[in-house]
Amino acid sequence: MLLLVASHSDGNGDDDHDRRLSERRAEAVKRLLVEQLKFSADALVAVGFGKQRPKNAADLFAGENRRVEIVETRK
Q1: CA-based, 20 to 30 A from 26: which of 6, 39, 40, 57?
Q2: In whole angstroms, what is the distance from residue 55 CA to residue 27 CA?
């Protein structure tokens, strides 16, 4: 099993800032899963999408666009 830790941001910052922010957030969640919940680091992939994939495309500044999703993927 491989888990994707996908972090997203809202439209408040420029593209580069939002991507870096979401990358740091994804890495922080991965670190928590490894350190606190004892997941294998090899089973987790952290990715920051920035504002590329908004949950609420009608309002890029909506709170639901700032999120982390954990998705099971195939190796």
Answers
A1: 57
A2: 20
Nearest-5° Cα angle at 44, 38 to 46: 120
**10-69 pLDDT tens trace:** 999 899 999 999 999 999 999 999 999 999 999 999 999 999 999 999 999 999 999 999
Distance of alpha carbon 50 from alpha carbon 7, whole angstroms:
7
Eight-state DSSP code of residue 23:
H
Neighbours of 36 (CB within 10 A): 8
Domain spans of the chain, in order of start: 14-73
- Could you tell me the pLDDT band of residue 1, with boundaries at 50, 70 and 90? confident
